[in-house]
Amino acid sequence: MKKIVITGGIGAGKTAVLKYLQENVNCKVIRADDVAHILMEPHEKCYYEILNAFPEYDLLTYPARQNYLDDESLNNKENPFDKEKLSKMIFSDEDNRNKLNSIVHPAVKEYILEDVQSEEDKGEIDYYFLEVALAIEEGYDRLFDETWYIYASEKTRSKRLEINRGYSENKITDIMNSQLSEEEYKLHATHIICNDNSLDELYANIGNILHCD
Q1: Are 40 and 104 in contact (CB under 8 A)?
Q2: Distance from C-alpha of 74 to C-alpha of 80, rounded to nearest angstrom
Q3: How far apart are CA 20 and CA 202, in angstroms?
Q4: Pick from 5, 36, 39, 70: CA 20 to 30 A from residue 46's CA?
């Protein structure tokens, strides 16, 4: 089973790549963001850790009247995080963002590596694809066999984000500036897959790489 990390800047079109792989390759596709969401659900691994780390914030969907530090106080209550409150907290304060990441990222990595081992033990798939934005920063490029960098120009990415997500120009600029540069991505990439043009060209690029394997 070959283990491949898929990464790239926002708006590069990683979702289109994952969809193609799921439909055409004997593989498992997993997204680090999806794993993070699972681990942050009520009573999952990161749920209480986050509440304990930010006792001064009311981060839950429903107002919590009990002490966050008392695990029993929330037992049997499906009270998820309020995404808007959580987003506001981490994007308004870099220290908060770093603290949250220090809880979630190691848990996500542990989950993924255990899942990789499980799939290797079963021996039923040819490829394991992991899509993660912070592949280089979190060292996944050193843990997996290959790193695929999905490339699209800033102009193309900006247009996609404006049309598909309704992002403002300032928001797009802020997000892109917070991510690795094109040069840094390329430095760590095993393969660079261009997604600046048609889907047919994208699929052909992926097919060529898989055929070489």
Answers
A1: yes
A2: 11
A3: 9
A4: 5
Cβ count near 58 (within 10 Å)? 13
Tell me which amino acid residue 8 is: G
For the chain, the C-alpha Rg in angstroms (whole number) is 19
Number of Cβ within 10 Å of residue 127's Cβ equals 19
Bridging pattern class, strands 191-194 and 146-151: parallel
- Phi then psi dihedrals of residue 95, to 5 deg: -65, -40
DSSP codes joined into one string, 32-63:
HHHHHHHHTSTTSTTHHHHHHH-TTS--BSS-
Structure tokens at 75: 């037992």
Token pair for 118? 């499980």
CB 10 within 8 A of CB 135: no
pLDDT averaged over consecutive 10-residue blocks of the chain (213 residues)?
96 94 97 96 92 88 57 60 86 86 96 97 98 93 96 92 89 86 93 92 92 77
Q: Strand 146-151's sheet: what is its strand order?
A: 27-31, 127-131, 2-7, 146-151, 191-194
